[in-house]
Write a structure and sequence with these properties.
With 87 residues, the protein is mainly alpha-helical. The protein has one domain (1-87). Helices cover 60% and strands 0% of the residues. The chain is built from 3 helices and no strands. It has helices at residues 2-10, 12-28, 35-60. The longest helix has 26 residues, at 35-60. It is elongated, with a radius of gyration of 23 Å. The protein starts with a helix and ends in a 27-residue tail after the last helix.
Length: 87
């Protein structure tokens, strides 16, 4: 299951392309699919892969400590490391 999730997270366009090809082949073999049905299926698969990709990415990152970094010039010591102005 992890391999499939990794594939969906890393190569979502590959899976969408596979779904489009499978739908085209099924239609060619006589499955009655309209363009709207194919479009809706591709849109659903794309949205599903976006969610899987987001979940897989979220599982691999570490949240920050909540602060933010102020980028400043070396001589400009007007702000603390948390972005607060020094007194």
């Amino acid at each position: 299951m992890n391999n499939l999730r990794d594939l969906a997270a890393n190569e979502p366009a590959l899976i969408v392309g596979l779904v489009v090809a499978l739908l085209g082949m099924a239609s060619a073999y006589g499955l009655a699919l309209t363009q709207e049905m194919i479009g809706a299926t591709v849109a659903f698969v794309g949205a599903l892969l976006a969610v899987v990709s987001a979940l897989a990415t979220r599982a691999r990152v570490t949240p920050s400590s909540g602060g933010f970094t102020v980028h400043r010039r070396a001589k400009d010591d007007e702000f603390t490391e948390h972005g607060q102005r020094r007194s």
